[in-house]
Amino acid sequence: MSTAVVEREESRITGDEEEKQYLTFVLGDEQYGVNILTVQEIKGYTDVTRIPNTPPYMKGVLNLRGTIVPIINLRMKFGMEQIDFTSFTVIVVVVVQGRVMGMIVDSVSDVLTMKAQDMKPAPALGVKVDTSFIDGIATTGDRLVTLLDIDRVLSDREIEQVEAVASKENE
């Protein structure tokens, strides 16, 4: 699968503090963020081609300027209630472990610049709750934003499944 990755400066150093930028988006009542360096583009939701025998959270694939991009329904992946897509529903196209993928989210909020002091580690929720895909929790004003490690939202096995589907569609 062809992948175009734009190299950008990962962070800015301001005095003694490192700042990182995160694209924030909404799923239900919750705010999430992903490192802006993983985001290729934001696209309004359009129908995707469903692929049989794929995991339920895999909505399908989309032809994005000649590249077949697998599309993940993040609500389904996180076990959230499914809702009808609206005019605010978007696909955030990201690079996950060197592969281009899309994530369906309810809406995009904004780009936040976070200082290290504004970010706290993911809470320990016990061995039965996997929080390995959470980079941390950030405080911005009176909001909490869950910062995702986009490379860990899907397991290696899940990424292989998604990649296999996209590869077949690219042939």
Question: What does the secondary structure layout of this molecule look like, with pairings?
Answer:
Layout (H helix, E strand, L loop, with lengths): L11 E3 L2 E11 L2 E6 L3 E6 L13 E7 L2 E7 H4 L12 E7 L2 E7 L1 E9 L3 E2 L13 E7 L2 E6 L7 H15 L1
Parallel strand pairs: 3-12, 6-8
Antiparallel strand pairs: 1-2, 2-3, 2-9, 4-7, 5-6, 7-8, 10-11, 11-12
Task: Describe it.
- By secondary structure, the chain is mainly β.
- It has a single domain (19-170), classed as Beta Barrel (OB fold (Dihydrolipoamide Acetyltransferase, E2P)).
- 11% of the residues lie in helices and 46% in strands.
- Keywords: Cytoplasm.
- It is found in: Cytoplasm.
Which key phrases capture this entry?
seven-stranded mixed sheet, 2 helices, OB fold (Dihydrolipoamide Acetyltransferase, E2P), 46% strand, 12 strands, five-stranded mixed sheet, mainly beta, disordered N terminus, globular, 171 residues
